[in-house]
Amino acid sequence: MEETSLQKDSVERPAATPTRREVYEAEVRRRSNRIALISVVSVALAIVVLVPLAPGWEAVQRSFFNGRVFVETFPGLLEAFLMNVMIFAWSAPLIAITGLVIALCRDTRAPALFPLRLFGIAYTDIFRGLPVVLVIYIIGFGVPGLGLPRPWNSPYIWGTLALVLVYSAYVAEVIRSGIDSIHQSQRSAAASLGLSDQDTMRYVVLPQAIRNVVPANMNLFIALQKDVALLSFIGPVEIFRQAGVYKSLYANFTPYVGAALIFLALTIPATRYADYLMNKQNRART
Amino acid sequence: MTAKLSLRGVRKRFDYHEVCKGIDLDVAEGEMVCLIGASGSGKSTLLRCMNLLEPIDDGEIWLDGKDISEPGLDPQPVRQQIGIVFQSYNLFPHMTAVENVMLAPRRVRGLSRDDLRPRVTQLFTRFGLGDRMEHYPDQLSGGQQQRVAIIRALAMEPQIMLFDEITSALDPELVGEVLDVLRDLRKQGMTMVLATHEMGFARELADKVCFLDAGRILEQGPPKVLFSQPREKRTKAFLSRVL
């Protein structure tokens, strides 16, 4: 009886009179907020005041932050960005599937499937070892050079394929690390129930592995979204190339800034979301 | 009395450390055998050898008069007959309790969810989990998870059940509900081998208790005899520590 009344008391007290601890912590919190605010304001002030003092500031402002050029080119940039979105939209699922297949190839243990394993290893080694832009050049210019009939000679197709090839290698490695992260006891439990190796992989290991690597893969896909711009080097008029066209037209760099803003509008929320997922997972694990 | 499961001179080595140093053991149909002994004495490894999760290095294991330790033999049919429950439950965390239980019967024995539903529901109800079937493992207490793990093994209708210290990871107040499940199985005449630290439970229900020490069965016999008049000095020392 006495114990319950004590507990009740300790629960209700914070509402009425804060404890010494709470008073202290509130004070510390207020102080840190004050310091953070002062520090942010002074850095911002320094930038606003000091940067315009630079000798070239006027010229930079004119050629990078030109309001008129921005307004005139922004709709065109947005339209060109649709091309990026389209390339992304059809390469992302292909990458996910190819990455999974390659990861499974590397994990095969049956001797008859050894060539598959070898292929998986060679694939990831080669495509992770090459700069993306080099693969895009070689495939994007090389394959259409074979003289294939339309539309198979389009750099749009082969450039995208180059992205698929490279990113699949990274996704495969991420998935494989996810497979490795599943504790041996899960496989033991599956084996003890008489499940075959394939069923163990399909129903027990993979679903958990894929879930574990969702945040890491999201980061890869955010990087992919940016690397779509590399296709501009071989032809497709996506946002980066369109910005280049505008730059020449207006003799002004503002379109690049516009393009940057469009990328950020997409990638910042996406990275935040990936971080959120990652944190959620870390919390779930502890 | 022909044994359901017989071990003859079973040896198991991990690298240079020999965990089982020639073990002979007979388990008769419907019998409950308890393996006791200090941590590291080889109890768990012995159980894992019995359902071929670990290949043995030497010796033989016979199930129903068939040598199942033959190298190269397909372990899957054997594992369907010998179920095992682990200390750490090892439920599949991404599946509900009922999906955990149904996975192996569906994939290995080709039964449909509808075929399984009545019997699985009956198992859950019997072990007091009728209202927990659609819960995920992390929504269940340790004791509930361990009961699901037992149901999962039972759903394959094994002839022998192995239990590897299944109450060791549980909070003391949850041990009872899991032991009740074992009592129930015992009543039904299930053939069981347990590695356990629950001496009271072993004394109450076991037909035979084996004391393992450094990879050997040092002494075995009915619990009454072994607990009250141990012959070996080391058995005495162990029992005086745990009783």
CATH class of chain A: Mainly Alpha
The averaged pLDDT of chain A comes out at: 89
Largest sheet of chain B: 6 strands, mixed
> Biggest β-sheet of chain A: count, sense, barrel?
none
Which descriptor suits the 3D outline of chain B?
globular
| Strand segment tally of chain A | 0
| Assembly form of the protein | heterodimer
Determine the mean pLDDT of chain B. Answer: 93
Side-by-side strand order of the widest sheet of chain B? 6-7-8-3-9-10
CATH-assigned homologous superfamily of chain A? MetI-like
Order of helices and strands of chain A: HHHHHHHHHHHH
Proportion of beta-strand residues of chain A: under 5%
CATH superfamily of chain B: P-loop containing nucleotide triphosphate hydrolases
- Uncertain residue ranges of chain A: 1-8
CATH class category of chain B? Alpha Beta
Radius of gyration of chain A: 27 Å
User: Roughly what fraction of the amino acids of chain B lie in strands?
Assistant: 25-35%
What's the helical proportion of residues of chain B?
25-40%
| Number of separate domains of chain B | 1
Helix-strand blueprint:
The complex is a heterodimer of chains A (286) and B (243).
Chain A: H1 2-16, H2 20-50, H3 57-64, H4 67-107, H5 114-128, H6 132-142, H7 155-180, H8 184-192, H9 197-212, H10 214-227, H11 239-250, H12 254-285
Helix pairs in contact in A: 4-5, 4-7, 4-11, 4-12, 5-7, 6-7, 7-9, 7-10, 8-9, 10-12, 11-12
Chain B: E1 3-14, E2 17-28, E3 32-36, H1 43-50, E4 58-63, E5 66-67, H2 75-81, E6 82-85, H3 97-109, H4 113-126, H5 142-154, E7 160-164, H6 172-187, E8 191-195, H7 199-205, E9 208-213, E10 216-221, H8 223-228, H9 233-242
Helix pairs in contact in B: 3-4, 3-5, 5-6
